[in-house]
Input
Amino acid sequence: MSKSLSSLWLKSMRRVSKVQQAEGLRLFKSLLPKAVPAGRPRKPQLKLVKPAATQPTRKARRPTAAQARAAAGLPGTWRKAWFSLPGDGLYTDARRMMYWLYLPATAAAAASAPDTPAAPRPLVVMLHGCRQTAADFAAGTRMNELAERKGFAVLYPQQSAAADAHRCWHWYRRATQRGEGDVEVIAAMIAQVQNKHGLDASRTYVAGLSAGAALAAIVALRHPQLIAAVGMHSAPVFGTTHSPFSAYRAMQHGSGSSYGAAARSFASQQPEFPGMPALLIHGNHDSVVRRVNADQLAEQFEIINGPVITQSASREGPMVRRHPERRGGRRPRHAYQTSTWYAGRKPQLVKCDVDMLGHAWSGGDASLEFNEPHGPDAALMMWTFFSLHRRAPVPKDEAAGSP
Output
């Protein structure tokens, strides 16, 4: 009996190992730029143009399943728009990025009341991972449903397939880590959406999954006057990569001893950095971005938040709490452990390690890729953490001169 159980266990482990290797190889290929095959030049063909009266009207595109499900049954507004960042005409070209925006109906109802002025709503910026679209991320995380209940807006920037065949954010590039490229476009997009819809500029938060989480960390660190807190799910270590190869190596093995130097270098270059509240969620069975990244990322944010983090005389280090598994009931969840560093009475840095979770959004919609139905609910955890933090408003003269 014991021999049969051992053989079954070995077979299952080999099967899991093969699946993990295939997933890792597929991810590595997604990081590489995709070459467009050169085809034979086609001969120009003459096309007969029908008169305007006889030309059929072009039908509107039907929304995809994810686009329809992202706000299905919700009373709020779910719209697609484009943002353009003009170039200087000399060194940089104009850049254009598509985004989706969810505005809860509660905000519209409050604004329509004549006697009670509506308070400006918070904004959560959600950055998808590789091989995802903004609508996939919205439907999988169910963040719009939470936004409707809690009364905040959600912005979903989307990487274009022209910029990357797998819609990966280029978080590993040195220019991106300096705050250029996608980071610059998203920061300007956030400011425009805040102003256009009258959102609360002191309560803007950014979150992401995998490559989106890596980019969320850069957006938050490079624009602390804009972002009040950051949430990172399955994020790689910050500031130690410069190419797809080094990015894949960091995702699989961490960054050795350079991660601490990267955080100290950032802190030394930003002596007046106000601190960045951060929540890290990572699965212990993640074979795409290994858990070592969460440990190193937590140490990095502990260094960056060093001047802000306070510790009592009787306790040093984070407060660790273990949450048991819940199998039955309406909301089953995996066991998880939280490590919390405080700034006074507020949690400044929280690291959440989830048992049995792979490379997927915890508590998401399992019908979409990169989502795990079992909790804890990552969307709710992030909003609960975000709601504790507010960024002090920046004076208008300083805001006008900030990048």
